[in-house]
Write a structure and sequence with these properties.
Strand order of the largest sheet: 1-2-3-4-5-6-7-8
Number of helices: 3
Structural class: mainly beta
């Protein structure tokens, strides 16, 4: 039997924070496929990917242990093959390891959000991460489930994540856990 998945509550929760070792920027780096979400904006999208790339630290350091990540989201609408892109920069958020503040690039510079990793790992062939997004002016609070593999996660891993979300004793997280939907992935991305 596979070990149960454990997730931490969002830092905005009033619950005590368990010991948590965040993923390194090297582990987080690369392309992730957003396979499940509670965010309404993904209901009309498909083939959603997020690519993270370490940037030199704001204090002039190297990308090793950086406090900044290049963040590129790409997706297609349900009715078009055109690939759309959202570019931003993530900066480590204060003292909470595993939390990031996103700011858009270009015309999206006015947009910002806060997100954090609730849990991550390797489970059999699955490499997964669960992220929480705080409410903004434009979006409600939400949860995304990431898979390193384009084909997504095994049903066992998805159910393990759902169960772990349901065990978090925060009413908002419990509500979000019941709203998770699968994002369409059809392999029809035209890069």
């Amino acid at each position: 039997m596979t070990n149960p998945i454990t997730l931490r509550p969002p830092t905005a929760s009033n619950l005590p924070q368990p010991a948590f070792t965040p993923p390194t920027t090297q582990w987080l780096s690369g392309t992730w496929h957003v396979t499940h979400s509670t965010l309404p904006m993904w209901k009309s999208k498909r083939n959603v990917q997020i690519a993270y790339k370490p940037l030199p630290s704001a204090d002039g350091g190297t990308a090793q242990g950086t406090d900044r990540i290049d963040d590129i989201v790409t997706y297609q609408s349900l009715t078009s093959s055109k690939l759309k892109t959202v570019n931003g920069i993530d900066k480590a958020s204060g003292s909470d390891a595993g939390a990031w503040d996103w700011r858009g690039k270009g015309w999206l510079m006015i947009a910002s959000s806060h997100w954090e990793v609730l849990g991550y790992g390797d489970r059999g062939a699955d490499q997964w991460a669960v992220t929480y997004f705080a409410k903004t002016l434009f979006t409600p609070a939400g949860i995304d489930i990431y898979s390193r593999a384009e084909g997504g996660l095994s049903m066992e891993t998805v159910e393990g994540i759902r169960d772990a979300l349901g065990r978090i004793e925060d009413p908002g997280v419990k509500q979000l856990a019941g709203e998770i939907f699968e994002i369409q992935r059809d392999g029809a991305r035209e890069e």
